[in-house]
Amino acid sequence: MKEDYIKRINNIFLFIDAHLDQELNLENIAAIGFYSPFHLHRIFKAITNETLNEYITRKRIEKAAAVLLHQREVSISELSLQHGFNSNSSFTRTFKKFYGLSPTEFRIANPYKFSKIGQTESKNGQEAGPLAAYICNINNHINWIKMKAKIEIKEMPKLDVAFITQIGHKGMENTYAKLIKWATPKGLLENRNLKVVTLYHDSFKITEPDKVRMSACISLEEKVEVSGEIGLTTIEKGKFIVGHFEIGIHEFEKSWSGLFIWMSENGYKKADRNPYEIYYNNFNEHPEKISIVDFCIPIE
Predict the structure, then answer these.
(1) What's the Cα-to-Cα distance from 218 to each of 23, 29, 157, 161, 175, rounded to whole Å?
(2) What average pLDDT does range 242-253 have in this prediction?
(3) Quick check: 71 and 269 in contact, CB under 8 A?
(4) What percentage of the chain carries pLDDT values higher than 70?
(5) Interatomic CA distance for residues 100 and 266, integer angstroms
């Protein structure tokens, strides 16, 4: 796939992210990427393995699912209007195709259906009920956070970054290798305040792993010229829960889950911005393969 195609699709991703609550059609979006509608349809499908309409619908439903997870006071009617659906029935029907549950059922059932916990056994050897399993899971994550994390509420500064898009959970290491190869001859890695960041546009709790979109990023002190698949974007300043961890790669999922549980248990609400990770070492160079990392959740 030509790098210029990827750059233009990156611009389309950013436009869709910012306008999910508005009418989006093939012709208007094609103009953003300087494509004909026919060529955009073909190229978008080749890069994402989804048609443009499939992608937009999925993003709207997943954004609604995130609200159901984190903002229980928002009504289903509000959700349908906020996410581009012209009726509750249309929204409910589409939501059920993705998750097998209505939005109301999802809101009630998500701790049991979507938490990644195995079955537990009660003292008499019988399978514990979903509530017992859920409580056990919550307690395990709370204990994990107490042992593993230093948590602060911080105002994080604005970050201007260069990035490459990664779709799917496999291949992130190669994506960073390409970004570093581009940045090295430009002297960008010599920046004393350099930050290496993974920005998450989707959640692994809601989106299928092979469709999760991430940005592999390095921070910039001044503007640079980019081309091909390298893009530029800004992570806006704001209030964040920042969890500082020293963990193995296999512990990232548990750490993220624990931090989101800590957020809920302490009465914070996730803001409508993207979470990210900041890395302070190369885990491959650590004798115990430990990653020193901050997990950052935007909050209201």
Answers:
(1) 33, 28, 15, 5, 12
(2) 92
(3) yes
(4) 88
(5) 31
Burial of 7 (0-12, 13-18, 19+ CB in 10 A): middle
- Classify burial at 161, counting beta carbons within 10 Å of its beta carbon; exposed 0-12, middle 13-18, buried 19 or more: buried
Domain assignments of the chain as residue spans, ordered by start: 3-112, 152-298
Domain at 152-298, CATH homologous superfamily:
Regulatory factor, effector binding domain (3.20.80.10)
Pair of tokens at residue 178: 């390409």
Cα(297)–Cα(242) distance, rounded to whole angstroms?
7
Contact 165, 229 (CB under 8 A): yes
pTM for the structure as a whole: 0.78
Angle between the 103-113 and 52-70 helix axes, to the nearest 10 degrees? 70
Q: Is CATH 1.10.10.60 what the domain over 3-112 is classified as, yes or no?
A: yes
Residue 286's contacts (CB-CB under 8 Å, 6 or more residues apart) are: none
Q: By CB neighbour count within 10 A (0-12 exposed, 13-18 middle, 19+ buried), where does 119 fall?
A: exposed
| Cβ-Cβ contacts under 8 Å for 79 (sequence gap 6 or more) | 64, 67, 68, 91, 103
Name every residue whose Cβ is closer than 8 Å to that of residue 180 and which is 6 or more positions away in sequence. 189, 218
Alpha-carbon distance of 109 to 104, in angstroms, equals: 9
Helices 88-99 and 103-113, axial angle in degrees (round to 10):
30
d(CA 28, CA 17): 15
Q: How confident is the model at residue 137 (pLDDT cuts 50, 70, 90)?
A: low
